[in-house]
Fold TauD/TfdA-like domain-containing protein.
Amino acid sequence: MSAVETVTQVSQTLSALNLRGGDQEQKTEPYPYANLLPHFSPEQYPPLTPFKHEDPGFRALKHADPHAFLKNATNVVELTPNLGTEVHGVNLAALDGEGRDQLALEVARRGLMVFRGQHEFIDRGPDSYLEWGRHFGRLHIHPTSGHPKDYPQVHLVYKDAKSSYNFEREDSITSTVWHSDVSYELQPPGLTTFFLLSQPTTGGDTLFTSQISTLKKLSPSFVAFLRTLSAVHSGVEQAQFSRSGKRGGIVRREPVEHVHPLVRRHPVTGEEALYVNRQFTTRIVGLKREESETILKFLYDHVDKSADLQARVKWQPGTVVLWDNRVTAHSAIVDYGKSNERRHGARITPQAERPIPALEGLELPSL
Ligand SMILES: [Fe+2]
């Protein structure tokens, strides 16, 4: 057998085993989710306006059995004691309004839920995604990310051999950046749905942590002090990232900054959560610069190293993950770059209430 024949035979064998690199697959096979590839429309959007959020979790509290939506589950596993539940056997696409209300309440309680085998949900497409998300709140339109053409409410993350439309810091020693999504908005997201349409063979897991648990680790007197504080959350750096030509290079809505309490209270569960993050929080209002920097650095370090409070989601085809963005933080893990394989994810992001200070009636200072 000649060298050429040997190479051909090896290539055919790899093809049969579906072990070829993602880049090669992208060139030779039509991509089934091509209609959901990132599109960067040049449209400009006006500032977001306040709205009244009615949390679906309240409705579930009145239900005789708030866990009824899990009745068909074949397996329910707690990922960690305080954060995350993995569910098998429940078809999200079949949940009615009551089931969705109960889901929202359970995600608020567990912070994170991982549903396996959700191919029907994913393959129903973008109109279905919007209908799903609107049950939980007004859909956020991201100011800078790519979205499927004509569906700006669907936020996409995307990386393949040729391009990356993620918000990534290339000058850092780590891709780990704990954050709560778009916390710079006046009314940041609540129950958030995310799934992958395409994933690398290995890598690209997602980290989550409970900000209820990170707060509980702190001493009562320190928490009492944090409850009196508020901080600026800024979308400016994210917009500058796009304006520098990265991530599609589009800024459709001018960046905003808002002040939120350092400790917020979940409207349905009443639980308190730490609400600062390294990606968007810039300073604590009313403190000297050094005081603010020291406290924020301490809190970020605490979140970074509290592996005992974290959960790691390993994606499988058909996995849909939901988290309550008010009481959790998360980080992408970009460890698959050299594989050149495609990672394509979609997020449905309903906004929720303006963060409620743990001290009810706490007057938030302005910027
Ligand atoms: Fe995120």
Q: What stands out?
A: Residues 289-305 form the longest helix (17 residues).
